Amino acid sequence: MGVCSALSGLVREDAPQREYALxxxxxxxxxLVKTGCGWRYLPHDLPPWPAVYQQWARWRxxxxxxxxxxxxxxxxRVLAGREAExxxxxxxxxxxxxxxxxEARAGYDGAKRRxxxxxxxxxxxxxxxxxxxVTPANESDRGQVDALCERVQQVTGQKVPVAYVxxxxxGEDAAYAAAVHEIDLQVIAKPEGQTGFVLLPRRGVVERSxxxxxxxxxxxxxxERLALTMQQFHFLAFATLLLAKGVFRATSP
Length: 253
Prior knowledge:
Nucleotidyltransferase, domain 5, six-stranded mixed sheet, 9 helices, 40% helix, 253 residues
């Protein structure tokens, strides 16, 4: 699915029932995910919030921003002199504090001492998002390897043979879950005897991606009632980052 078709909203751009330009709706969503404002607090020079939300629900349910991100990621990789599809990915998770809206599906992360949701991601070696899974924070990282690897191979066409992970993914179950999808799970551990923060090879890439996500205030906490909304907002945020770099404009005639 191309970038333009991904945003077509499943209804023609010139359909008589369409009152607002899709570009204006898209800009409203970018504003919302970046600033973290509530739906009803969208500026008045953007389409009314009910129209924006209704269109967002269509795009979200059809995972349009996930498709958009796949196209933009390929363009970004080619422009960077890489193959269109990656041959290695990095898996990790971040815990996001819950709010009253997401409280019903929140869990407690004992390691982070925080109640909320976990966003499990797979990124390529440039830090671009390939897959995301949202679970309660008490879910283990190992348990999401199967879902992440399955999605990675779907979006890349079975091009990824290796995934780098931290020590939270050790164990036969995680390795087997990756192997089912023909991915070799390689654990990057701290050097023996070292304590505290240590910058490990490959690990800095996904941490930088989390840093990018944290700059979008709507993603700083879990404000969403649906896990799918939180997941798709991550794809919207990463697509926004690539668009801001001019990836799409650089390939336009």
